[in-house]
Amino acid sequence: MQLRPKKSLGQNFLIDKNILKKIVDIGGINKNDKILEIGPGTGNLTEYIVRSKSKNITIVEKDTDLVKILKEKFKENIKIINYDVLKLSENFYKDEFIVYGNLPYNISTQILAYWCLSKNIKFKKLILLFQKEVADRIVAEVNTKNYSRITILANWKFNIKKILDLNPECFSPRPKVKSTLLEFTPKKKIIEIKSPKNLENITKIFFNQRRKMVKKNFIKLFKNFNDVSKSVNINLSDRPQNISIEKFLMIVKKFEDELK
What we know:
Blueprint: E1 13-14, H1 17-26, E2 34-38, H2 44-50, E3 56-60, H3 64-74, E4 79-81, E5 98-102, H4 108-117, E6 125-131, H5 132-138, H6 149-157, E7 158-166, E8 171-172, E9 179-186, H7 196-207, H8 215-221, H9 225-231, H10 245-258
Parallel strand pairs: 2-3, 2-5, 3-4, 5-6
Antiparallel strand pairs: 1-8, 6-9, 7-9
């Protein structure tokens, strides 16, 4: 069955065999690991995962036509879930998966943000492919133009390592842009906040006007905005990209303290 990739689902299938093998190797899979692959497409990466030591492999694919191909290709070797990954409940992630994903470009930040902001979801490791422009934002440093909300959300919970950039010819059909492979390892200790929703909302408030000084945002959030800004060592004339991840989390903690 020959399938034409669907633009509406952001489908670009990875076909470079050397890269496919390298991606699986990064996971360091052992026989007790539970593997989750998001958006396997025609199963090019899945083939290499199946050859690994794991006997517990789940894949999530939204495209019903692709699911038919995957069922025929892998028989009983894997569990196939025909569903939208964005609609999976937190309970689905009760196992600490090693996650592989060539994430659809159009929803990649939504998927990552959901995982980062869900209080009860834990992973062993994430090995994910993003459009390079998105990956550059995820691994951006403070005080740079790429520093953004997704930088803060992702780096709150994970140590993130850039593995390599991939050229368009590694995919079929060829995308118009480069891709980047990132490895996410959960941090052993994070700055605890009461509700990740507060981090989501506060970063949204700040980065909705990323070129503006942060004073208006502090006024919106705090009655005693001058005192709060001094306590977290933030200059009210700064822009959002000047505020470190740790300081954003301190702003959230101050906000939550005021809600008591």
